[in-house]
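Final report, Chapter 2: Outcomes

The project's central promise was a pipeline that accepts a single protein chain and returns its three-dimensional structure in a standardized token representation, suitable for archiving and comparison. That pipeline is now operational. To close this chapter, we reproduce one record exactly as it appears in the project archive, with the input sequence first and the structure output second.
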Amino acid sequence: MPDGLIGVAISAASASEALEKISFAEGLGISAAWLTSGGGGGEAVAVLAAAAVDTATILLGTSIVQTWSRHPVALAQQAQVVANLAPGRFRLGIGPSHKASMESVFGADFRAPLGHLSEYIDIIKPLIQQASVEYEGRWYSANANISGPMDVPVMTSALRPRAFEFAGSKSDGVISWVCPHFYLRDIAMPALQEGARKAGRDTPPMVVHAPLCVTEDVEAAREGVRRRLGYFPSSPFYANMFLEAGFAPSPDNGWTDEMLDAVLISGDEDTVAARIQEIFDWGGAEILASVVPAGDEGPASERRSLELLGKLSTA
């Protein structure tokens, strides 16, 4: 059986629906639930604070909180609440997100995203993990204390090699999103390891995102990805990543079957379990599954996928 952590991305139209899905995942034995800030379910850290009270064992994480949306001290104070309610279960994933959305939603001056992220981590990690920070940087400054250090890893999102190398040098883990798995193995992982080597630290864990569907109908699974995650190939950041992975530029044609097959985990239960184990074998530490429906099977295929992830988590 697979020998790493298995988590699920929670997609919900409301906070109450998100809580129901997190509790359901915990009941199945799934190891971790992840929420993205800014979705229809509301603010992720607030939802996870409620989930912390409503659950007992499942790990809770953000994948991700957009750094442009709030000052690092404010986010550390929010993390303090969840960590207090769910000791040892909260993981904070942060990242700059995308230029177009951050400028349109928050009016952010989106430039030097890794420079901003570096200063953000220089504030939030010591504040969370050492309970105090004094910092004066180019983009951020802070002078703050909290009641005590917290057992909360601060993880970062990454898409291109420089971001993975940055994560290796500074973060407590890295979270991918719709990246081809061979790209993560052959390009991202060496960059992560190189960043850690230069910084003289251990390589942090890689959380490998994957659309996932347990079904014998592979075309239906592909269509499920197109419906749930269809816009990613037309986003400039992701189009550049796919180009770097060897796929033709895709802003106009969206997902190709070749791209889908490089990110999607699908098949029957044995096939999906074997694909997950392959990722753990080359160094992925955790699967972050976005469960997608398979055509007419719809909710039944999603339930089948979640049940398998629960069985693999508790095996």
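Archive annotation: The chain has a mean pLDDT of 93.
This record, like all others produced under the grant, will remain available to the consortium after the project formally closes.
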